[in-house]
Amino acid sequence: MGVRGRAVSVVSAVNWATNLLISMTFLTITEKIGVPNVMFLYSAMCFVLLVFVILCVPKTKGQTLEEISKELAKKKSFEIKLFRQAQPQESLICKSPSTECSANI
């Protein structure tokens, strides 16, 4: 619950900043590239953000804030589960240190 207040304030600030950015640039961009192209640009940005949310934001349905916090604390780095991890190939791994292996690295 301690994170909730900070998270709401960050989300609110980002929302206001995004609204300000769109409001200040809409007319200028519309004059330069036209209304259809501006709408396509905004829809492309929405699509990119939708893909980001689908791939990177964990599912939290039915979880308490404490459970979500514990799950996010487990993740130490940014991960995208799009591809499987590549398995190391034995031919590329040196089994003993030698001049041949160090020369290839």
UniProtKB/TrEMBL annotation:
Membrane spanning stretches: 7-27, 39-57
InterPro entries linked to this entry: MFS_dom (IPR020846), MFS_sugar_transport-like (IPR005828), MFS_Sugar_Transporter (IPR050820), MFS_trans_sf (IPR036259)
Domain Major facilitator superfamily (MFS) profile: 1-61
Taxonomy, superkingdom: Eukaryota
Keywords: Cell membrane, Glycoprotein, Membrane, Sugar transport, Transmembrane, Transmembrane helix, Transport
Cellular compartments annotated: Cell membrane
Membrane topology reported for the UniProt record: Multi-pass membrane protein
Family: Belongs to the major facilitator superfamily. Sugar transporter (TC 2.A.1.1) family. Glucose transporter subfamily.
Record protein name field: Major facilitator superfamily (MFS) profile domain-containing protein
Source organism (scientific name): Xenotaenia resolanae
